[in-house]
C-alpha cells in the first residue's frame, strides 16, 4: 500500500515548478501503479502550449477557472467538476483565467524526469 501526503512532495524533486504551472507528482512510474498521478496548479493569467505525443492524460479540475483550446478544434471552459481526456494526443493551449488546480493522470506513467520540449512534448522516458 502507498500512502502519501501532499506535504511529503512539496519542495522535493517531485514538486516541479515552471513559469506557467506547478506539478506535484504524487505517483510515478517507480510506484508501479501503471499510471502517474499529479496535483497540478496552472498559474493565473498564463497560457501553456502542450502536446502529449507520447502519453494520454485525463484531467479533473477541482479549483479555478480557465479553458482548453484544442488546436484546429473547439475551446472548452474549465471550472471545478470539469473532466477532459486527451485520448487522441491533441495539441492544445491551456489558459488559466484564475489559478486552476487539476488532478492529472498519465499513461504511460511519467518517471518524474520529463520536461516539456520546444514542441510542448514530454519525451517517452524508458528505464
TrEMBL record:
One Pfam family here: Ectoine_synth
Pathway: Amine and polyamine biosynthesis; ectoine biosynthesis; L-ectoine from L-aspartate 4-semialdehyde: step 3/3
Protein's UniProt keywords contain Lyase: yes
Swiss-Prot/TrEMBL catalytic activity: (2S)-4-acetamido-2-aminobutanoate = L-ectoine + H2O
Gene designation: ectC
Name this polypeptide is given: L-ectoine synthase
Keywords recorded for this protein, A-Z: Lyase
Top class in the EC scheme: lyase
Family designation: Belongs to the ectoine synthase family.
E.C. number: 4.2.1.108
Domain of life the protein comes from: Bacteria
Gene Ontology molecular function: ectoine synthase activity
InterPro entries: Ectoine_synth (IPR010462), RmlC-like_jellyroll (IPR014710), RmlC_Cupin_sf (IPR011051)
One GO term (biological process): ectoine biosynthetic process
Task performed by this protein: Catalyzes the circularization of gamma-N-acetyl-alpha,gamma-diaminobutyric acid (ADABA) to ectoine (1,4,5,6-tetrahydro-2-methyl-4-pyrimidine carboxylic acid), which is an excellent osmoprotectant.
Keyword set includes Nucleus: no
Source organism of the structure: Paenibacillus sabuli
Amino acid at each position: 500500500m502507498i500512502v502519501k501526503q501532499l506535504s511529503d512532495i512539496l519542495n522535493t524533486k517531485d514538486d516541479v515548478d515552471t513559469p506557467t504551472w506547478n506539478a506535484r507528482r504524487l505517483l510515478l512510474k517507480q510506484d508501479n501503479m501503471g499510471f502517474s498521478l499529479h496535483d497540478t496548479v496552472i498559474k493565473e493569467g498564463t497560457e501553456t502550449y502542450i502536446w502529449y505525443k507520447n502519453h494520454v492524460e485525463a484531467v479533473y479540475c477541482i479549483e479555478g477557472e480557465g479553458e482548453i483550446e484544442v488546436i484546429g478544434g473547439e475551446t472548452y471552459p474549465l471550472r471545478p467538476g470539469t473532466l477532459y481526456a486527451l485520448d487522441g494526443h491533441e495539441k492544445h493551449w491551456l489558459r488559466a483565467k484564475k489559478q486552476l488546480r487539476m488532478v492529472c493522470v498519465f499513461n504511460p506513467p511519467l518517471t518524474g524526469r520529463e520536461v516539456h520540449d520546444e514542441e510542448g512534448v514530454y519525451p517517452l522516458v524508458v528505464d
